Amino acid sequence: MNVSGWGRYPRGATRLITARRPADLDGLLTDGPLIARGAGRAYGDAAIGPCATLAMGGLDRMMAFDPASGVLTVEAGVMLGDVVAAFLPRGYFPPVVPGTRFVTIGGMVASHIHGKNHHAVGGFGRHVTGLTLLGPDGVASVCSPAENPELFRATIGGMGLTGVILDVSFKMLPVETGFIRQETIVARNLDAALAAFEQARGWTYVVAWIDALATGASLGRSLIYLGEHARRDEVGDARSAPPRPARAIPVDFPNFTLNRLTVSAFNAAYFQAGLWKQGEQIVPVHPYFFPLDGIGDWNRVYGARGFVQHQCVIPKAHGRQALGEILELVSARGSPSFVSVLKLLGPDNAGLMGFPMEGYTLALDFPASHQTLDLLTEIDRRLIGYGGRLYLTKDARQSRETLVAGYPNLPAFRALRKNTGADSRFVSLLSERLAL
Ligand SMILES: Cc1cc2nc3c(=O)[nH]c(=O)nc-3n(C[C@H](O)[C@H](O)[C@H](O)COP(=O)(O)OP(=O)(O)OC[C@H]3O[C@@H](n4cnc5c(N)ncnc54)[C@H](O)[C@@H]3O)c2cc1C
């Protein structure tokens, strides 16, 4: 069948195998190479096997919880949203979450995802105390910082290319309420935004929505959302609210819907609305962490051609210069980036191929087109010059040169894959494209 990631670009023909019990995996690896797939929220080609794709969503049991340590053990196909639904009422929240709750825990480990708190606590893999990995020989082994540490580190952010993650144990965060104390800051340009990031270092959660089409004195204008888990005494009479059921986008938008004019108008209105929201508010966790989950299938706004996300990280020292150049390129070409997000990342060496490094990460979404691909190649050229790298779980088009320049541990990762035999058993369109 034809399968794609969240960006719906590219699509690949693959044999889809569904695992419902660990026993379904017995003998599977002798049938030829495959790649594990969680909820398919990676944007590009990471979870598509050129031969076979192993859907893990059926392995979705929560196995154990230890209230003394806060460690939760789940099968890899458990959805993040289900963990939040089961544990928030009990006073626990996952230590790190991405911008959507519709991802599996296995996918979060394989991507070593980062949240709005990366500068404070690192990526998800840093909170994993152990996992079980089905290796290329069909044998399951326990990996942790103490047991098989090299394999553990290669699996964190390893994009499913070291084996199939069967279960994961990770430490949950105790919280008093299901609310966030949010402060909204308006930054009128990029310098103001970066200054606000510096001042916000004491906050646990920091993220900025950035107007990627603003130009001149307004280049980089942003709304910055700071957050802390609210204490019981701060919540007052705020009512606990379950996530709103998603309203789905019923059809693909026509290709002309998202253009410079419509996105500029939306951005201007959103920025103005932000002026009214300045200051502190108490907000439920779901709209704070997962703002787009309220719109089901929002990837359809980019039309049937699909879209690509370009998420880079730039070392702090070059941050201002590189971000300014990237935003100038985007606004000069008039490329309509609808969802544009800026975050601060802290140092991180939890995963051999992990994306995060200390610096600024900018994520931009563009409709898939020749113009977009040309623009992104130009951005990558600058990015390499500044020592930056691209996020594999968002990638659909970077070149091997960009990868080599951005990931210094690539030779060690390739050697581990070769030595364990994983290179011939675990193969995705991503690993073929980039010779991972
Ligand atoms: C709206 C949106 C917002 C996002 N926000 C963020 C964010 O803030 N921060 C961030 O870091 N990421 C973010 N992401 C990316 C997302 O968190 C990752 O792509 C995540 O890995 C998706 O999980 P999944 O279960 O859908 O995995 P898939 O997309 O199915 O797979 C992703 C990778 O994990 C591997 N994999 C999946 N399951 C297993 C398994 N059991 N064993 C081995 N390998 C496996 C796959 O082979 C693939 O390489 C966002 C994505 C979306 C759509």
From TrEMBL:
Keywords: FAD, Flavoprotein. Coiled coil: none annotated. PROSITE patterns: FAD_PCMH (PS51387). Residues 9-175 form the FAD-binding PCMH-type domain. It comes from the Bacteria. The keyword Flavoprotein applies. GO terms for molecular function: FAD binding; oxidoreductase activity, acting on the CH-OH group of donors, oxygen as acceptor. This is FAD-binding oxidoreductase. It comes from Phenylobacterium glaciei.
